[in-house]
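2024-03-11 09:14:02 DEBUG pipeline.ingest accepted 1 chain
2024-03-11 09:14:02 DEBUG pipeline.ingest length=94
2024-03-11 09:14:03 DEBUG pipeline.predict start
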Amino acid sequence: MKNHAPIMFKTNKDMPPCAMSLADMSHNKTGSWRTFKPVLDENKCIKCFICWKFCPENSIDIENDMPKINYDYCKGCGICSNECPKKCIEMVEE
């Protein structure tokens, strides 16, 4: 994971008047929020990395040329499973 310096504001008046992300989820393990978790069938995977590209939480890493799900940060949204062209990611109830 990348280390990011937090954005600090002295007062609320210093904050921008628009919606913005003040932090990414790399500082917060959100895996316990899940009801379903994605399980990858490596035998079906064609290594297109579409799952990695579409994961909104950047919870999928590439290790040894294979997608690997980081369950500490995966919220179980199922976007990876939905986007997989070979349907090799199954959402399994925890």
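2024-03-11 09:14:41 DEBUG pipeline.report The chain has a mean pLDDT of 83.
2024-03-11 09:14:41 DEBUG pipeline.predict end
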